[in-house]
Amino acid sequence: MKKLIAYKTDVQLTANIITNFSDSINKHIKGWNSVCIHINEFIKNGIPASTDAIATLGILRGTGHLLKEASKQNIDRYYIDHAYFEAGYGGDCWLRISKNKHTINYIRDVSSFRWDKFFATKYPIMPWKSFNERGNNILIIPPTNAICWYFNEYNWEKNILIELKKILNEEVFKKVRIRNKPNEPILDKHGNYLGLKKNTQTDNVSLETDLSNASIVIAYNSQVALDATLKGIPVIVNKHNSCFGLSFKLADLNQGLDNPKFDKEPDRIKLCKWLSYCQFKLEEIKNSFAWKTINNFQI
User: Fold this and answer.
1) Which pLDDT does position 203 carry in this prediction?
2) Are 80 and 57 a contacting pair, CB within 8 Å?
């Protein structure tokens, strides 16, 4: 019998999701036993011996430490977080679940069934934009403070700007615009959650406007890259981004924003179909469809 431990926090909404994930395994999956416990048990005692897998939601309140430790011990990790499409906990409560990854950053060829049924109408794939159809700015979406802690990427933004200064002439570099998350989770250097920081500079310009004015989007893990991709804007992203399989390279900017490479459309529909198989509504988590699909399809 394999053993999974599902760790919940004091946040009742997400704790209920973790409980449902754990219960579905015990009800529907042969050969597995799941126990749902509070994250404080890990903080006090670590991961118990003979644990085959862990599951948790988010990287705050100790869960980030849990995920790092499970990775270090080569224990399978089922990571739950906001969905690629219809993010948030309302409605059907769609959630992405990634096995041994922070986000799904590769593409597999799957049926269009889930994309067509659940998301295609609400998330239209707009025509790919040529250089003349795109905006003028280079929109940069840095990792949040919490993500900087989790991946030890405190210098990402600074390093990107250094590279862009090398690549771009002064006039083009002036078109760089940095957009931080409006409400950013803040952690101390030990990963302890301190609260939310409101970045007021993003209030003045909507995301829609920023994307309309963008010629290209450079992001770490932000979902804004997926928004841009759907709108036909090329992206350059980190390996922890769902658009990594479609990403252009910083070096492509050596030939300027009008590099013909950026005019070539990547296989966006293939990405959308695949991501539709990597996120699940709460009902699919409860009836174990999520567990079965993850373990059949995800690497």
Assistant:
1) 62
2) yes
